[in-house]
Amino acid sequence: MKNIRIFLIASVSVLLISCGGDSSRQNADSTTQPTMTGYFIDSPVHGVGYFTSSGLSGVTGEEGEFQYFPSDQVTFSLAGIKLGTAVADTFVTPNDFEALSATGILNVVRFLLTLDADKNKDNGIAIHPVVIDAAKEAVFSSADFESSSFESTAAALFSKTSNGDSRVLVDSLVAQEHLDQTENDLSDGRYDGVFDSDFDGFGDSNDNCPNTANSNQSDVDGDGLGDACDSSDDTDSDGDGVKDSVDNCVAVANSNQSDVDGDGLGDACDSSDDTDSDGDGVKDSVDNCVAVANSNQ
Fold first, then answer.
1. What sign for the dihedral angle of Cα 101, 107, 110, 112?
2. Taking a C-beta distance cutoff of 8 angstroms, is the pair 293, 277 a contact?
3. Helix (H) or strand (E) holding 29
4. At what angle do helices 102-115 and 172-186 cross, to 10 degrees?
5. Which residues contact 236 (CB under 8 A, 6 or more apart)?
6. What's the count of helices (H) and strands (E) in the chain, helices before strands?
7. How far, CA to CA in Å, does 19 sit from each of 8, 14, 101?
8. 137 and 148 in contact (C-beta within 8 Å)?
9. Contact 12, 5 (CB under 8 A)
10. pTM of the model
11. Alpha carbon distance 287, 292 (integer Å)
């Protein structure tokens, strides 16, 4: 019996050591894996808090960056007031927020855009420290984002006043367009910060019709405004600064538009002199009384 007890004790010890070794190795694997960098984007969102399901936390950087481990969930917040939670990834946008309706997502976007320090959504969304301090005393909750009358919520009021100035809450249509532009920018797997309002493949800054889709960028009159949104034809075939529609010599440069004989054809391209000094309907070159009207000649 004594030998059996010793054998059992030894066997249990081996099992415990074995199990303990596996657990230690698993813990080491999870704690030594490198952190990943993700970006919170609706334009880069700088200055909001984040924490992950693995315990990482901090404040998003100037490019919206945050740290996470694979398989993490990440929650973004403003002084503890939850904005949304999503599966952590290279890029996270408000559209990725779980447990928020479409209304809730859109209102979060309106909230952030209104809070933006310089009110310029195209250069990123920066949350000023004064806003963070104000949020610590705020009386609203994340439930406000789901309100169908968001304009009248405490969260909306906070977004308009917490920067210390008077602001107008960003309109739903503007917010939706901005979010759509962000998603469009990210569709190639990277964020370029180039918005394409009409989704024609040309960023607004390089698009000759930024609000009208024209993937061919056709500009027949060369005035810098694409044909798709150009209401006037400014073609100037001879390059004399006078557009064809009013040029008396369309194919010959004549910026002074001189037309001595008044026949509507500029001197630069008029091969015949139609001057009629006495106005009798007979041009001077064949008039037998150049200075005296005599239409019957």
1. negative
2. no
3. helix 2-32
4. 100
5. 221, 222, 242, 243, 244, 247
6. 5, 9
7. 16, 9, 45
8. no
9. no
10. 0.62
11. 9
